[in-house]
């Protein structure tokens, strides 16, 4: 009897660890994206009047929105640094460091004195904190994705790899929910004066919870085996660039449309709808939250489906969807009719989910374990620059210069075509799909 009980516990142990790692990956990336989105929202709503008051209102607004993209400048550096030590020292250590760095930067923004108090130091420190967030973001996703995938059984890598992916839409829900709540509770003057700081300070609570969860997970078994066999790469990013340039290009390309079009959804339509279409701020925040919830559902479905049919077919469907929906999206959004705007947002979320769900598993399968953290993190960071770095600013400039959002739709199509070409180059074979199915069949 004792032997049977011990055996059952042994079987439950690895499964329990897989779920714990998935939860830790989800919580960590959710906090990262929550911190990112509250910054992006505050930059659009209040930063201009607090940190760039020496400029004209229009210039102050442009300057504050531009700081959103500052993070992309250092993301590759964060990916290289954390990828290097993630491949040398372990995934878990870097994930804890990334979470701490993001937390310090976000709480720092919440405590930062304004331009009226400390002058030019205010916008300078704001950019410094933003750069710290960029360093964290450069290494956070790669580690979280690899921890989830490398702990998972082969036939469920897609599904468990979806948990860090859920951090983006969930972080968006939390961030917009926080702003929705505080703008509803506080008067407009209270929120503009000091209430905007509360979502940033609340991040401290999330960081403590995230650290508690992450410190309780084991190191990746694949990294543990590399360490035990002395097979770790001495210069992982050099090895990636020298021996896997084609793989790196594919990994960068498949992310371009998702991150670029995602930033249209995340960072552009709020300002566009409230300032140009006359839609209420809370109404638009609610629509974005509903779209994010749908994004979560489609991400999970796409990840699960990729375990059955492969990463490439799911990615291909999502890429085609994003290209096809680019023009209908703004045609419906610009009606300023809430039901039609909701339809536009929900259908865009389908394409985002299809191209986001399989990503973690795909990146893990593209690169060997010894250089996986560096390859995945660097590709993710560069893809974010090419696709999302200038998208909010480009969308605003295109709309202003052409007088129509159809120019933004054309830009979305261009991003979609870049990803579509990369997807067609994914080296997934029928044998890989069959191996996943054989692994699934062997599980009782």
Automatic annotation (TrEMBL):
**Chain segments annotated as transmembrane:** 21-42, 54-74, 94-112, 159-186, 198-217, 248-271, 283-302, 314-332, 338-357, 378-398, 410-427
Give a yes or no for keyword Transmembrane in this entry: yes
| CDD domains, per database record | MFS_ShiA_like (cd17369)
Q: Which residues form the Major facilitator superfamily (MFS) profile domain?
A: 21-430
* Cellular compartments annotated: Cell membrane
Q: Which domain of life is it from?
A: Bacteria
Keywords, comma-separated and alphabetical: Cell membrane, Membrane, Transmembrane, Transmembrane helix, Transport
Pfam families given in the database record: Sugar_tr (PF00083)
| SUPFAM superfamilies for this protein | MFS general substrate transporter
Give the principal location in a single coarse category. Answer: membrane
Q: Which PROSITE patterns match?
A: MFS
Question: Is Signal among the key words of this record?
Answer: no
User: How does the UniProt record describe the way this protein sits in the membrane?
Assistant: Multi-pass membrane protein
Q: What is this protein called?
A: MFS transporter
Q: Which organism is it from?
A: Nocardiopsis rhodophaea
């Amino acid at each position: 009897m004792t032997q049977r009980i011990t055996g059952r516990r042994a079987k439950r142990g690895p499964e329990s660890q897989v779920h714990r790692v998935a939860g830790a990956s989800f919580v960590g990336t959710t906090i990262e994206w929550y911190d990112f989105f509250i910054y992006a929202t505050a930059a659009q709503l209040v930063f201009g009047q607090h940190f760039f008051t020496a400029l004209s209102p229009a210039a102050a607004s442009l300057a504050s929105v531009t700081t959103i993209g500052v993070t992309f400048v250092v993301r590759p550096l964060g990916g290289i640094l954390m990828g290097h030590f993630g491949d040398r020292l372990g995934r878990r250590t870097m994930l804890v460091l990334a979470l701490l760095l993001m937390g310090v930067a976000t709480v720092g923004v919440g405590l930062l004195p304004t331009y009226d108090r400390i002058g030019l130091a205010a916008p300078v420190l704001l950019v410094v904190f933003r750069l710290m967030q960029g360093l964290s973001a450069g290494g956070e996703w790669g580690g979280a994705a690899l921890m989830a995938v490398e702990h998972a059984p082969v036939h469920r890598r897609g599904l468990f790899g979806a948990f860090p992916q859920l951090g983006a839409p969930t972080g968006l829900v939390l961030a917009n929910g926080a702003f929705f709540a505080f703008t509803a509770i506080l008067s407009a003057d209270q929120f503009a004066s000091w209430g905007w700081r509360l979502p940033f300070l609340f991040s401290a609570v999330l960081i403590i919870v995230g650290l508690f969860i992450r410190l309780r997970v084991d190191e990746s078994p694949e990294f543990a085996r590399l360490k035990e066999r002395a097979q770790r790469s001495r210069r992982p990013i050099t090895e990636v660039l020298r021996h896997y340039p084609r793989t790196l290009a594919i990994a960068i390309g498949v992310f371009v449309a998702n991150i670029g079009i995602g930033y249209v959804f995340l960072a552009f339509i709020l300002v566009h709808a409230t300032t140009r279409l006359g839609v209420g701020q809370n109404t638009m925040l609610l629509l974005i939250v509903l779209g994010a919830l749908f994004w979560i559902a489609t991400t999970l479905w796409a990840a699960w489906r990729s375990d059955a049919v492969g990463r490439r077919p799911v990615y291909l469907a999502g890429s085609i969807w994003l290209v096809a929906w680019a023009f209908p999206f703004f045609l419906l959004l610009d009606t300023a009719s809430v039901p039609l705007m909701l339809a536009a947002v929900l259908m865009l979320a389908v394409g985002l989910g299809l191209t986001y769900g399989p990503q973690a598993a795909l990146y893990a399968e593209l690169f060997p374990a010894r250089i996986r953290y560096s390859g995945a993190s660097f590709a993710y960071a560069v893809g974010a620059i090419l696709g999302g770095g200038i998208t909010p600013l480009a969308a605003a400039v295109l709309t202003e210069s052409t007088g129509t959002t159809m120019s933004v739709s054309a830009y979305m199509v261009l991003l979609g075509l870049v990803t579509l070409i990369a997807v067609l180059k994914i080296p997934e074979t029928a044998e890989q799909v069959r191996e996943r199915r054989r692994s699934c069949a062997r599980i009782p």
